[in-house]
Amino acid sequence: MFGKRPGGGAEVAARPKAAAPPMPAGSKPGAVPPPATRGAPPPQVAPPIVVDSRSEQYYEIKTTIFNALIDTIDLAQLAQLDAESAREEIRDIVNEIIAIKNVVMSIAEQEQLLQDICNDVLGYGPLEPLLARDDIADIMVNGAERVFIEVAGKVQLTNIRFRDNAQLMNICQRIVSQIGRRVDESSPICDARLPDGSRVNVIAPPLSIDGPALTIRKFKKDKLKMDDLVRFGSISKEGAMVLNVIGNSRCNVLISGGTGSGKTTLLNTMTAFIEIDERVITCEDAAELQLQQPHVVRLETRPPNLEGAGEITMRDLVKNCLRMRPERIIVGEVRGPEAFDLLQAMNTGHDGSMGTLHSNSPREALQRLESMITMGGYNLPSKTIREMIVGAIDVVIQAARLRDGSRRITHITEVIGLEGEVVITQDLFLYEITGEDETGKVKGRHMSTGIARPAFWERARYYGREKELADALEAAADK
Ligand SMILES: Nc1ncnc2c1ncn2[C@@H]1O[C@H](COP(=O)(O)OP(=O)(O)OP(=O)(O)O)[C@@H](O)[C@H]1O
Ligand SMILES: [Mg+2]
């Protein structure tokens, strides 16, 4: 909905509704935009941005020296050395090769060459300069020739290249072998993590047709805080206060959004509202959350080993959590049958639990929860599942990445109850798109829908936060 540029004119991200229309049973979640018409002129591709300023000539020299190095060096022996000694060893040999081949280079170029060769032999090769940058959110490698990055919400093609697909595959292998996995024709899909915590996915040929595809979600050391989200305009000041009250008064929260829309970031910021003395257990596929509280147990799923055994699923973790006396359970991403266990936990006194889920609207998020439970093989009537959902989830927060690359919280929606078999929701805050400025940036505003007494009012009162809630809602309504 937000990813594509529609025909033109101002449009509304979402319109306020006093009570949203009933959840149509079996309706198709999320309208998919029609595919681009065949025969239309190919879209203009922006030229690659220059991330790497080395010349073609430099690369020719590097290839010559690299090949000579590989002929000389015993890679198996090199692997035995620690990183520093290996670097020294490479430095000595490279200097020798430069002298023998009579290559003319400045000291700075020589240092650069040495650094690059060490990166190729010991590290992540051409990826290293990208990994070193903290402003990059994602690195997407589509075969040796095309490396894209996402910076400030914009995806850009770079001029970084791998020598060939074999080098790229080698680097993928190096990444996944660090966590004891392997990627090749027989097991061509692999999730891994870099030592800095970045999340990695590799899919290799023959599944990926044009060479290995490597996707890295860079780990941000300085996680965004709610103040940052307000500063970026992702949420208004009043909206942030309402989220603060929601987190603090232990509402059960579902964060919904598309890929890369900022769900995990939002979940992380919401965890800041957890009291310091609460026992929190987090379950994730790859540990991304950074909770500041002292009483946190972090759990991570485990993929099966090469023989296909030993898998620990998200469901196993969530189930085990319940035996660990948690006060709150945080699930990084709900995508399967663990939805049932999370809802059960939420329904049985683990108030303030949270999770994220891939979906395009709060309504669709609730539908997806229902289908995850149905597909998990639980033989429950749909009314019972909906009762569970309504009893468990208090608030759905929707995150979206808009067409200009900016991330916004587009809905704060309450789950009110069930009328017949229909889940009733109520929007508290919505983001309305009003237009676009001359640079293509989306203009819009967060607005309250005028609800002065949300359903979690009593809960906020119980935790002594009703004044802040009332003030925030009133201030938002006046805007
Ligand atoms: N409100 C925001 N403003 C600017 N950047 C943001 C915002 N929220 C998230 N980001 C950045 O966007 C990137 C993706 O965020 P995040 O990992 O939270 O998304 P996600 O929805 O969890 O993605 P995935 O679906 O892949 O798990 C990160 O680099 C993060 O720092
Ligand atoms: Mg995420």
In words, what does this structure look like?
- This protein is an alpha/beta fold and 479 residues long.
- The strands form two sheets. It has a nine-stranded mixed sheet, with helices on both faces. Strands 3-2-1-6-5-4 form a six-stranded antiparallel sheet, covered by helices on one side.
- A hairpin with a 5-residue loop joins β12 and β13.
- α1 crosses α3, α10 runs parallel beside α11 and α11 crosses α13.
- It is elongated, with a radius of gyration of 26 Å.
- 36% of the residues are buried.
Backbone shape: elongated
What would you call the structural class? alpha/beta
> In angstroms, what is the radius of gyration?
26 Å
Order of helices and strands: HHHHHEEEHEEEHHEHEEHEHEHHEEEEHH
Give the integer mean of the pLDDT values. 87
Q: Biggest sheet: strands side by side, in what order?
A: 9-8-10-11-7-12-13-14-15
Count up the helices. 15
Give descriptors for this structure.
479 residues; alpha/beta; nine-stranded mixed beta sheet; six-stranded antiparallel beta sheet; elongated; disordered N terminus; binds adenosine-5'-triphosphate; binds magnesium ion
Summarize the structure.
34% of the residues lie in helices and 20% in strands. It has helices spanning 56-72, 75-80, 83-101, 107-122, 128-132, 165-177, 226-231, 237-248, 263-271, 314-321, 338-347, 362-375, 382-392, 457-462, 466-478; strands spanning 136-142, 147-151, 154-157, 189-193, 199-203, 213-217, 253-257, 280-284, 296-300, 328-331, 354-358, 395-401, 407-419, 422-436, 442-448. β2 and β3 (154-157) form a beta hairpin.
Topology, please?
Elements: H1 56-72, H2 75-80, H3 83-101, H4 107-122, H5 128-132, E1 136-142, E2 147-151, E3 154-157, H6 165-177, E4 189-193, E5 199-203, E6 213-217, H7 226-231, H8 237-248, E7 253-257, H9 263-271, E8 280-284, E9 296-300, H10 314-321, E10 328-331, H11 338-347, E11 354-358, H12 362-375, H13 382-392, E12 395-401, E13 407-419, E14 422-436, E15 442-448, H14 457-462, H15 466-478
Parallel strand pairs: 7-11, 7-12, 8-9, 8-10, 10-11
Antiparallel strand pairs: 1-2, 1-6, 2-3, 4-5, 5-6, 12-13, 13-14, 14-15
Helix pairs in contact: 1-3, 3-4, 8-15, 10-11, 11-13, 12-13
The protein binds adenosine-5'-triphosphate (ATP) and magnesium ion.
The site of magnesium ion (MG) has 3 residues, from α9.
